[in-house]
Request: fold
Amino acid sequence: MASPKKIRLHFNEVAMRDGLQNERRFVPTEDKIALIDRLSTLGYARIEATAFVSPAAIPALQDAEAVMRGIRRRPGVIYTVLVPNLRGAHRAMQSQADEFNLFMSASETHNLANVRMTREQSLAQITEVARLASEGSIPVNVSLSTSFGCPMEGDIGEAEVLAWVKRFADLGVQGVSLCDTTGMAYPDQVRSLCGKAIQAHPSLNFTAHFHDTRAMGLVNALAAAESGIRTFDASLGGLGGCPYAPGASGNVAMEDLVHMFACTGYDSGMDLAGLIEAARQLEPLVGHGLSSQLPRAGLRLTKHAPPAGLEEIRARAQAKASQAPRL
Ligand code: COA
Ligand code: ZN
Reply:
């Protein structure tokens, strides 16, 4: 009997944006470009290459134009960029970004802390940027931060989160990312919110974006896949975190996520060995160890050498077995 067709998932690499925005050390532009070029060969649907935000707010990404100019665009990969306002949209357009990733927060407090606007002001900006993008035939995704809870406000009601999603859908955007900015999500909540969002907007492309702040990233991603989510953000090496969200830490690690999905019967379409190699290269760039497991542990079936003297151990064990049992 033919085996059932595996469900195909799609991956967005966010290490170059969510990842680097929270790093102390500035990664030189040429190293960013080389890493993006390498990642481009590994099977990603999307690479979030940079952010056209204020360089004063996020100095790590002050070289956004140079990065976009320097990368080699691989056909089939969408080079998306984070855009906070109209100014950012014009910069992104000049840099020929394939997609705008607009963002706001479901939490009023986090939105004010992050972008210094109320949520209604953010939506007004998003509306204007979406109009500009549609004139230029540029697809738009909206990332809704703190969809699963805010570190300052606590839980954000599910109905409220879904109401924001509806307002984005009404603008005609192509995708919405449900973002767990500080790792507050848990599987039942993920199943409920993702399931309802997909049911209400079947033509929107939903992405799940989990941070591993409380070591729940993988289990939440699995719950999201079971609820029908087919696109995932994650970060090579588990880098990441919003500098304007107290207690934020890294995204779920891309290589660990891809490995988990490969083991649970999904088709990731990703070059996992290549990802692990790329993660090992990332470490010297950021100047510290990574939180991901796979670069240390290797693939599930990676074989290690047995201990020295194994044959002697075997011979002794066999000799013991052949001795008459002591009574
Ligand atoms: N690109 C470059 N510079 C920008 C910009 C953009 N998209 N938007 C604003 N600026 C500059 C302005 O020119 C101004 O510069 P100046 O002080 O030299 O005159 C400065 O930023 C402040 O501009 P203002 O319009 O008053 O914005 P703000 O201070 O209210 O900041 C944001 C609003 C959203 C632009 C800014 O907070 C930001 O970029 N935040 C980044 C948030 C982020 O990336 N968080 C992590 C992702 S979740
Ligand atoms: Zn994030």
Remarks:
- The mean pLDDT is 96.
- The beta strands are 7-8, 10-13, 46-51, 78-83, 99-105, 140-145, 175-180, 205-210, 231-234, 266-267.
